[in-house]
């Protein structure tokens, strides 16, 4: 048993603030202002100006991909291609890997205003294959060594540009398959364990992982499921298979399906393939790309909904948003379900028609508030390709909240860093006047709503009696800091099941074995 004394932010239905929280056996047994005599002699931790809140939930992350890239080189902070070249050369000298991976290159955050080329990658790393993934996770640049390995697989595919080394669309997926397929099971397990430790350092105790693309036999789905069961720390993983084939979820006994890649209805703004109802303002890319017909999306949603699965689909542009909303409406008209919790991921650019459907049918939005004021995709760039009016309608958090849409927060990692403090800061300081959330609302979308989005709210997401003691320790009270100073907030600890988070550790074989045993007992 342990007593926490100080600022306790419960995020219950009334956003109650308490002075005391008592944990016993991994569960919360008391929350309130006055400590009952029964707990007076229990060990006590004084928060001393810090604050306790529910553990954060990342409601949209590519866990295996993030783990792979997190183990590689992150170049998001580079401000020139010359700097990226220097970082790659240094990384190549230090890394023992046969195939190198870097991530985060953006033509909009470097002084050259373009992606670095295959020739420039060759200068930095001539001897080993390297894949430089674009910030949005929808394209990459390869050097000559990697191109030689994949050329037969990608030549002739849409998005194949051997002159510059840039691969996007189908060519990018083929390169990604080759790279992830080269990873051994021990490497992948070690990377995922390392990623969990990093997420925990940010106060994240649960992740909704979209998986099943790029790994042979959907190995990432299996490993994430096993590792989640075997995690000694209490870290929680909820896996969404990224497939339009309902059997992929059903044969694994998973209650949900969806994500990006195979469940992406369109692309992204940075590659001009987010699907728009009106053409891009810079006349490059036309209206973008809808990857599926309305009939294909509708048929998938109807089948998955009939099977009792929770559905989530990627939609960035307004045409994709409408397509997702209409398909989910058709599915729920076909087989009405209370509490389905279907969702539209990203939901960056809504329409009045689609939003009305989402409000009426209870469709929730796992959003990325990190996209607001994102250095990799600056506001001026978005205005130049979309026009000022459309750019000002992106990620309208207040509009959604006031319409009664349940919002949750996620990173889309590896596209952005999994950082709940940043999610809150951006949500409370929207670029568009009137679209910001309050501190209480921002905290809720990062905690309770995340647990709610996968039916976990009875056990987690708020600090209430009877729930699992999954809690983050914050450096200060975010309400005292206010919206303008939220960026000063730090996560000082993560407590899962009443215990301070412990790094995963152990052998890869032991972790998988524990997961298999847990499955057999389930």
User: What is Rg?
Assistant: 23 Å
Instruction: State mean pLDDT (0 to 100 scale).
Output: 92
What proportion of the residues form beta strands (DSSP E)? 15-25%
The structural class is: alpha/beta
Q: What fraction, in percent, of the residue positions are helical?
A: 25-40%
Q: State the strand order across the main sheet.
A: 3-2-1-4-19-20-21
- The tally of strands reads 21
Overall geometric form: globular
Poorly predicted tracts of residues? 507-522
Largest sheet: 7 strands, mixed
Number of helices: 19
Give the terminus-to-terminus CA distance: 28 Å
Produce a short descriptive summary.
The chain is of the alpha/beta class and 522 residues long. 35% of the residues lie in helices and 21% in strands.
Molecular structure report:
It is a single chain. This protein has 19 helices and 21 strands. It is α/β, with parallel strands linked by helices. A 7-stranded mixed sheet has the order 3-2-1-4-19-20-21, with no helix packed on it. Strands 6-7-8-9-11-10 form a 6-stranded mixed sheet, with helices on both faces. A 3-stranded parallel sheet has the order 5-12-13. The chain is globular. It starts with a strand and ends with a helix. 54% of the residues are buried. Residues 507-522 have low confidence and may be disordered.
